[in-house]
Specification:
mainly alpha, 12 helices, single chain, globular
Length: 338
């Protein structure tokens, strides 16, 4: 095989991203951008810029050899479904707190803010989807951001539960079991404990010097929205299992897919790298190796999963952009002006 081929793949895909980046900029520069708050528009620009920087300095755009085309196609179907269900989960949790937001706005906010994860700080993707709704409604940005953060905690909580189940299946509890259980206990307290909730309000009052009441889901309401988060992670797990089958001929059980929620959640919770870069791939390699996959194959699949998931992020970004433009055009037709 030509040794320059991976580099050519890397270069062509980076050029393709740059083209789409320019298209996105031009789309946001037209009249539909009049309905997007300038600060949010710049947030989208900055997140795209950081994504470009990350792609330039990493090797995640190298495409591995695909041995099963049907499997890779199935993996993308489940991947895209997972992102769509994630936006539905965002709408459901808002509805439970009596925030009546259209699904299109949830899709647009989720999609346009998806690359905020690559901005250092870990909060921008949480703030982004809240800011999109806040600037198009009378709802408080602070309260929406708190709800978004709570939704992120629930998402992590579900991912860790599924990942911990995967650890049990591969017999790796002695490696990560105690760490994941410790994290699960912490997230459980954050999500369900009124004491932790009240302490958070007091901290915000001390820092911001103003009273902020953070909307809080009851246990019953939380349990009602959990299935949507489970479904999102389940689709991604099935997608990762199909991705594995498309790249590797080693026979594995379907439970190998549960390594993705484990790596995904631990990657998100990584405090240093933007978007969980490196951390997620390291956990993935370790999980696959414990499951009996040689390190070389495990590394290939872990790196490929980053490119695979990036394709899903591009998908939901494009969906969000399309929905935003259609919504803005509809507002323009009825003479809406901000």
């Amino acid at each position: 095989m030509d040794q320059n081929k991976p580099f050519l793949w890397h270069t062509s895909l980076l050029n393709l991203f740059i083209v789409h980046f320019k298209i996105a900029i031009s789309q946001f520069s037209d009249r539909s951008a009049n309905y997007m708050n300038y600060r949010y528009k710049y947030f989208v620009y900055i997140s795209l810029l950081f994504l470009a920087v990350v792609l330039y300095h990493t090797n995640f755009l190298v495409v591995p050899k695909i041995i099963s085309l049907p499997a890779i196609l199935v993996s993308f179907i489940f991947l895209f479904l997972g992102f769509i269900i994630g936006a539905v989960a965002w709408k459901k949790i808002l509805k439970k707190l009596n925030y009546h937001v259209d699904l299109n706005e949830c899709l647009a906010g989720t999609g346009l803010s998806i690359f905020g994860k690559y901005i250092p700080g870990k909060i921008w993707i949480v703030m982004g989807r809240a800011a999109y709704i806040a600037e198009r409604s009378d709802y408080s940005l602070g309260k929406l951001s708190a709800i978004s953060l709570n939704a992120q905690f629930i998402d992590l909580w579900i991912g860790l539960i599924l990942g911990t189940i995967g650890i049990f299946f591969i017999g790796g509890f002695h490696v990560w079991g105690f760490l994941t259980l410790f994290m699960l206990l912490g997230l459980t307290a954050v999500i369900f404990s009124k004491v932790v909730h009240n302490a958070t309000e007091r901290i915000l009052h001390t820092v911001l010097r103003k009273d902020i009441k953070i909307p809080r889901l009851t246990i019953k309401a939380t349990l009602a929205v959990i299935p949507w988060f489970v479904l999102s992670w389940f689709f991604w797990s099935l997608g990762f299992y199909a991705l594995f089958l498309s790249l590797c001929s080693i026979n594995v059980e379907w439970s190998i897919g549960l390594g993705f929620p484990l790596a995904g959640t631990l990657g998100i919770m990584a405090l240093i790298t933007p978007g969980g870069l490196v951390a997620r791939e390291g956990v993935m390699v370790g999980f696959l190796n414990l499951a009996g996959i040689p390190v070389v194959e495990a590394t290939t699949i872990a790196v490929a999963s980053r490119l695979w998931f990036l394709a899903g992020e591009v998908f939901i970004f494009i969906v969000g952009l399309i929905v935003h433009r259609r919504s803005s055009n509809s507002l323009n037709e009825v003479g809406y002006e901000r």
